[in-house]
Amino acid sequence: MEERRSISDIYGGRLALQRRSYSPSCREFCLGCPRLSLRSLTAATCAVWLVAYGLFALCQNSMVLSTAIFITLLGLLGYLHFVKIDQETLLIIGSLGIQMTSSYASGKESTTFIEMGKVKDVVINEAIYMQKVIYYLCILLKDPVEPQRVSQVVPVFQSAKPRLDCLIEVYRSCQEILAHQAVTSTSP
Amino acid sequence: MTKPHLNMAYRKVNGHGQSITSKPSHTNCGIHLLRRTGTHNICMVSDFFYPNMGGVESHIYQLSQCLIERGHKVIIVTHAYGNRKGIRYLTSGLKVYYLPLKVMYNQSTATTLFHSLPLLRYIFVRERVTIIHSHSSFSAMAHDALFHAKTMGLQTVFTDHSLFGFADVSSVLTNKLLTVSLCDTNHIICVSYTSKENTVLRAALNPEIVSVIPNAVDPTDFTPDPFRRDDSVITIVVISRLVYRKGIDLLSGIIPELCQKYSDLNFIVGGEGPKRIILEEVRERYQLHDRVRLLGALEHQDVRDVLVQGHIFLNTSLTEAFCMAIVEAASCGLQVKSCEYQVGGIPEVLPDNLIILCEPSVKSLCNGLEKAISQLKSGTLPDPEKIHNRVKTFYTWRNVAERTEKVYDRVSREAVLPMDKRLNRLISHCGPVTGCTFALLAVLNFLFLIFLRWLTPDSVIDIAVDATGPQGAWTQQYSFSKKGEDNKEISESR
Fold first, then answer.
1. How close, in Å, is residue B434 to chain A by CA atoms?
2. Which helix (H) or strand (E) holds A57?
3. What predicted TM-score, i.e. pTM, was given to this entire model?
4. Are B266 and B236 in contact (CB under 8 A)?
5. Which residues belong to any copy of the Phosphatidylinositol N-acetylglucosaminyltransferase subunit H conserved domain (chain A) (predicted)?
6. How many domains does chain A contain in total?
7. Which of A68, A188, B274, B458 is most deeply packed, by most CB within 10 A?
8. What pLDDT does residue B53 have?
9. What are phi and psi of B141, to 5 degrees?
10. Residue of B nearest to A150 (CA)
11. Min CA distance, B106 vs chain A (Å)?
12. Do both B264 and B161 map to the same domain?
């Protein structure tokens, strides 16, 4: 079962939410960010080149221009490889754990897996972020020594930053699966 | 990319997992409540809030709690204290925003009039605030919030907690700023009539928009306990910050004089400050180590334990808008004696038979104290329990909240000044130079607000889930449960 929807992020931009339900205890949420637009790429390149030409006009040194070429190329590569995230996926399997995958624009993927035994809860929290106060979804991890305490908070959908309505939807699904898991694990 | 502040206290949005799911079913009842009582969404702004300790802090906290009890939605905005930044919930869902703004001087934030607008606007919009209530004229953040709220067209209330002089340079400057800040504020609350007079003069206000609502004490925290004190000697208690304004120089004058006269007289001094060295010198010079005890800084919960050890409470403040300390002392059943000064609000605080007032001079204070001691020895002083029962009825927070609510009701019916009238008011009220400067700043602030609205329109800002108020998730969840569970929930969130 697959469902596709367009939602908005905290800046008012568009995001694509894909929801796949494989079984009652296994669901996947996929948030796709818009691709790198030609406009912002052009703007960034132009800015670097204009500064470089300004410096060149002042000091008449052609080194400036070659540096500018390297800065643009390396900057673009670095941005695509380390910063720009195209898609973020949250896969939750009741009996196994939670997996978060972010795929970068260059094709690189980074995956974090948290086994169910370590997950204490999934909650929505508020934080002050830049000049905003936003809601975000996060996973609370159990302290291995004291199971009642929380050792770490892992934020989900860090780069997409969807709005509260989307978070509540994901949150409810997660809670359903967690509750289902709690029932099955206590019964023999 | 910057991560959200992860080191702030994590907190579930609604305490329990399922509460968001259960929320819509209560909406109808919420709207019904809203119609019946006409509740407000109030935002308290001040630089001073817990964990910092003081009168303003406890005033804001107690007032908010009582307003929540009356069904209003209340949030508090303050600046970050060390590691305490982000959003926290206190008892009965009181939400506190600790904003990461730079602290300049004496726990007050720096002000540029503009840099706090994006965050404050975001909070006002997401919490759907209708009334901004700022506290304390020393707080730069409170004035900033007033300025922004007026730009955004929200109703504003200001509470002044302190008295000022008129003579020296610093007070002339602060008075000018206060004039600017208060000239277009909807309503001002003062804690005593003296303070009202002072504020009206300082800020050149129309007295009709200034109300007097005194502070209150929690009488259950300050109960007398006559068995704790040693009746073989007479103990005089002084609790105040040891600074010039509290008259510590007078205190250092009367301690040796009275100690020579009465052999059974002891002093207990609680508090910390730059003038402590004077008291230590006096103690050293007259060899009074066993009779004058300096306790240093006291936690608020320890104050009562110190108060009940004494027979007489001495307050030497030179100026005080509303002296909380003497009400607390009287509530503990002590005979209060205080220094009267021309611009003090002390005389109106307690009835004459509970307090002895003196001129601020060593001689007059000694006479007053001798009178109190002779009364004590002859046994004509009223019983501590009786004093407590009388004082208990004078100042309660519920009463304060009721009266503040009336101010809110009145303010919410008033119209907020539109921009052109506001500019006129600024220019005509605050003198040509200051008025024009601040009118220009107001225009700039308005343009900045338009820019911010273009950058992030109000429709993009998520409406926050209410913790308190008619549709408060917290109130609905816990109104029928025991208080103990509440406390557990809070200690979990810490």
1. 30
2. helix A38-59
3. 0.80
4. yes
5. 89-158
6. 2
7. A68
8. 78
9. -65, -35
10. B10
11. 24
12. no
User: Does residue B198 surpass a pLDDT of 60?
Assistant: yes
Residues B209 and B223 in one domain: no
Are residues A155 and B20, on separate chains, in Cβ contact within 8 Å? no
Interface test with A, best of B2, B13, B494 (most A CBs within 10 A): B13
Q: Which of B17-31, B43-57, B64-78 has the lowest mean pLDDT?
A: B17-31
Order across the sheet with B265-270: list the strands.
Answer: B292-296, B265-270, B234-239, B312-315, B335-339, B355-358
Output the pLDDT for position B6. Answer: 36
Query: In this structure, are B195 and B236 located in the same domain?
Result: no
Q: Which two tokens stand for residue B468?
A: 């308190």
Q: What is the pLDDT of residues A111-128, one digit of tens each?
A: 999 999 899 999 999 999
- List all residues of chain B from 301 to 320 with a beta carbon under 8 Å from chain A: none
Residue B123 contacts A, CB cutoff 8 Å: yes
The whole domain housing B79 covers 41-216+410-460
Same domain? B353 vs B282: yes
Among the listed ranges B275-284, B358-367, B448-457, which one has the minimum average pLDDT value? B358-367
> Does A105 contact chain B (CB < 8 Å)?
no
Distance CA B210, CA A131 (A): 34
Could you tell me if A59 and A146 lie in one domain?
A: no
User: Minimal Cα distance from A162: which residue of B?
Assistant: B462
Calculate ∠ Cα B450-B451-B457, nearest 5°. 75
List of residues 6+ apart from B396 with CB closer than 8 A: B216, B219
In-domain check, residue B399:
no
CATH number of the domain at B261, please.
3.40.50.2000
**Contact residues on chain A for B79, CB-CB shorter than 8 A:** none
Do A49 and A121 fall into the same domain?
no
Q: Are residues B79 and B123 in the same domain?
A: yes
A139 in contact with chain B, both atoms CB, cutoff 8 A: no
Across the interface, whether the CB atoms of A155 and B3 are under 8 A apart is answered yes
Residue to test with chain B: of A11, A79, A131, most B Cβ within 10 A: A131
Q: For residue A175, give both structure tokens.
A: 């809670």
